[in-house]
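hiii, so i know i said id send this last week but things got crazy w the move. better late than never?? heres the sequnce for the chain we talked about at the cafe, plus the structure i predicted for it. fair warning i was half asleep when i ran it
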Amino acid sequence: MNPCLRIRVRTLGALGLTALIVACGGGGGGGGGGTENPRGIVAAAAANPTLSSFSKALAYASQSNDLVNTLSGPGSFTVFAPNNAAFDALAVELLGPGKTVNDLLVPGNEAFMRSVLQYHVLATRLVKSGMQLGKSIEPILGNNAFFKIDSLAGSAVLFDGRARASGIESFNVDTSNGVIHIVTKLMLPADQSIFAQASDQPQLSSLIAALQLASDNEDLTQLLSRPGRYTLFAPTNAAFDALAVEWLGAGNTAAELLVPANKALVRTILEYHLLGSRLLRAEWPVGQPLDPVLAGNASFTVNAGGLTITDARNRIASVSNTDLFANNGVVHQLSTVILPPQ
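okay and structure toks below
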């Protein structure tokens, strides 16, 4: 363990979380060109002309100045602070051409903006050198909200809950109570459940039909719609068609497979595709068994390279799309339906 690492617990009051606060002695170093700043986060942002909209939004979204006071007081925070252009861009995205930050910060939008700002704040100090690409980052917003930092064209990029990407303009602006990273787009938390998100994907329509067929009083569809931290490995339509051919013969499709007589079998298969924890691709334990939450002692394995899975019958499935975020977990698409033991 790093000898300068210390952990303590404190309540973050206005930011709504009791959390582990991790701090490391010294300035903002850590490989990102950190600069010493004796001011707190709020004062440092107020002194930066490119963050004037962020400062204005923070005051606007505070209740009795609580957000401002918390980020001005003692602590160890990380703020991914959107620049002025990011606020104007969000106004255009949500409200239409010609809109600016002033059209966002109007009476009635306080709760929305408060949740958006909380999504940009971590309860720990995270400098550039400590950022782990592809792994989930949980802000103080709670409600299982998360985002990730990944690499795109050689640069670090934030991916939010709605698959929107934001560049990082400046790293490691050090303050007396944490660190600021200036970003080019406001991130938004996921606003759909796994079931709703999958329902919006045309290539997953057979999966949705299978979930509806296999549910008892809608239990599977409701499970994937309610709060939680799940991982769904979601076979595509082509995967279900291929399984129909494998089991029923050439010319058959998902339509012939997903019939009432096969309900119990389909349910067993679907239960094998769901984990009871949230695992992004970068978090998969390569070479170790993954245990589906509803499938008893059945397990499957992610192979070296992280792009294929070996199921309980030694069948190989390719991962065709990963890290589709939802407000109750994450979805990874599969090119083959994986099967539990016979």
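btw The longest strand covers residues 165-175. thought thatd interest u
miss u guys!!
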